[in-house]
């Protein structure tokens, strides 16, 4: 039996499990139609997502759409959609482009999403209005055997850490994984194609798009050719998928689908690594109560802002990462050095650009920051000046108040905790340091 056949036995629901899933779907329908708010409006129920397409794994999410007439105003759609969802399954209100309900029914995670009932996907009024067309397309362009191939690809993507279009992962959506198998024909044929991908790979099934995209991966939506289904995929996630496809084809192994539990490095192992690494400093804070897409979007902005700040002041970053462990957030930066000399050479214009040269010489002859007179070297004016910041963490602390690190994270600036390189091993958690230093791939655990 092949690795793929063995994996499919473990990931595909059997007849009894599928029967229970469909019973829960029907129960959800009944709960929704019995709500007072549902009876107020002309709403069509539409099961979407992997269950509707027959591409689901065990314990799938249920995605039920409430399709409103396009004449219903947005405020009414949102109000009734939330009321129906809460009355049916309770749950919590979440936001994408507009609010929807996330709950649970009989052990299955459940999304109840209001949307508009449209004639075709290009008429969309909200970002989710295409979803029923996606469901219809996959059903019409796949058969049971192909849907099993899709299951394998989804499981492979989950095991290698590239599955999920949310901001936290910036990876491959379920719909994109389905399109890949429809395009290439099977799980293995998909991996054979993926290992040959290059940055900005552009793919379409039916017709190319009239729109030019500049994303890491372009896959034209067959139901709306002006949309790139792969736009959420980051360059790093794209690269990880290319690498994992190549590695699997070289040596197929079930660990690509089911990685072993991660074992943290010991504090002794971390200490040994730190002894041979550059300077590592940290910023810590407690995660605010935000939904994932909002939080991770701002966290990425925060990290990028910090990297730009230290890079602009010559503290060159080798690597940075943000590790979230429950409510504990640790942002780590590995720098060439966390402390710079007091002095540096400041380069001016070429000697023969006389007007600019005179201005440079005049300025730095009288500037308090200059610790030498201007001099000529290799045809340029130069001067030795004092650095404004010699310690990377001083630079960050002093400038933090003026930086925009995200609407909600800006409120936490007074509660940020900073750790200098000398205290990293003592003050930062083993979990955060292990995740930062350990670069093994998930299938290598």
Write the layout of secondary structure elements.
Elements: H1 3-11, H2 15-33, H3 36-40, E1 43-48, H4 49-53, E2 62-68, H5 74-89, E3 92-95, E4 99-105, E5 108-116, H6 131-140, H7 144-160, H8 174-184, H9 187-194, E6 201-203, E7 217-221, E8 224-228, H10 235-250, H11 267-274, E9 279-286, H12 292-312, E10 317-325, E11 328-335, E12 343-350, H13 354-365, E13 375-377, E14 380-386, H14 392-399, E15 417-419, H15 424-427, H16 430-437
Helix pairs in contact: 1-7, 7-8, 8-9, 9-10
Short précis:
This protein is of the alpha+beta class. Helices cover 40% and strands 21% of the residues. The chain is built from 16 helices and 15 strands.
How would you describe this structure to a colleague?
- The structure is a single chain.
- By secondary structure, the protein is α+β, with helices and mostly antiparallel strands.
- It has helices spanning 3-11, 15-33, 36-40, 49-53, 74-89, 131-140, 144-160, 174-184, 187-194, 235-250, 267-274, 292-312, 354-365, 392-399, 424-427, 430-437; strands at 43-48, 62-68, 92-95, 99-105, 108-116, 201-203, 217-221, 224-228, 279-286, 317-325, 328-335, 343-350, 375-377, 380-386, 417-419.
- A hairpin with a 3-residue loop joins strand 3 and strand 4.
- The relative contact order is 0.09.
């Amino acid at each position: 039996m092949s690795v793929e056949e063995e994996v499919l036995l473990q990931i595909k629901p059997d007849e009894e499990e599928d029967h229970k899933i469909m019973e829960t779907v029907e129960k959800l329908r009944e709960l929704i139609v019995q709500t007072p708010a549902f009876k107020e409006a002309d709403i069509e129920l539409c099961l979407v997502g992997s269950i509707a397409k027959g591409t689901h794994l065990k314990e799938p999410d249920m995605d039920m759409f409430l399709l409103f007439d396009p004449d219903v105003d947005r405020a009414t759609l949102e109000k009734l959609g939330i009321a129906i969802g809460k009355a049916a399954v309770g749950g919590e209100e979440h936001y994408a482009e507009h609010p929807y309900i996330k709950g649970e029914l009989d052990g299955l995670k459940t999304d109840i999403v209001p949307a508009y009932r449209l004639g075709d996907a290009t008429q969309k009024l909200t970002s989710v209005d295409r979803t029923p067309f996606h469901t219809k397309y996959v059903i019409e362009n796949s058969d049971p055997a192909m849907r099993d191939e899709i299951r394998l690809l989804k499981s492979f993507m989950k095991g290698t850490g590239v599955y999920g279009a949310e901001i936290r992962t910036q990876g491959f959506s379920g719909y994109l994984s389905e399109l890949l198998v429809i395009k290439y024909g099977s799980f293995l044929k998909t991996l054979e194609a993926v290992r040959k991908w290059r940055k900005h790979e552009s793919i379409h099934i039916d017709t190319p798009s009239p729109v030019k995209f500049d994303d890491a991966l372009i896959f034209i939506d067959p139901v709306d050719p002006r949309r790139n289904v792969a736009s959420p995929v980051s360059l790093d996630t794209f690269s990880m998928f290319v690498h994992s496809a190549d590695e699997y084809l070289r040596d197929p192994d079930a660990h690509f689908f089911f990685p072993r539990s991660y074992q943290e490095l010991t504090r002794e192992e971390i200490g040994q690594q730190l002894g041979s690494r550059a300077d590592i400093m940290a910023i810590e804070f407690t995660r605010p109560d935000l939904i994932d897409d909002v939080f991770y979007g701002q966290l990425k902005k925060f990290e990028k802002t910090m990297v730009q700040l230290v890079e602009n002041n010559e503290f060159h970053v080798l690597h940075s990462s943000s590790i979230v462990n429950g409510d504990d957030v640790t942002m780590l930066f590995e720098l060439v050095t966390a402390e710079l000399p007091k002095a540096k050479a400041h380069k001016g214009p070429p000697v023969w650009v006389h007007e600019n040269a005179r201005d440079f010489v005049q300025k730095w002859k009288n500037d308090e920051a200059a610790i030498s007179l201007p001099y000529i070297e290799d045809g340029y004016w130069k001067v030795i000046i004092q650095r404004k910041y010699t310690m990377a963490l001083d630079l960050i602390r002093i400038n933090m108040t003026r930086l925009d690190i995200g609407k909600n994270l800006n409120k936490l600036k007074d509660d940020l905790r900073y750790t200098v390189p000398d205290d990293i091993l003592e003050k930062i958690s083993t979990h955060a340091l292990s995740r930062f230093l350990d670069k093994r791939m998930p299938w290598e655990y």
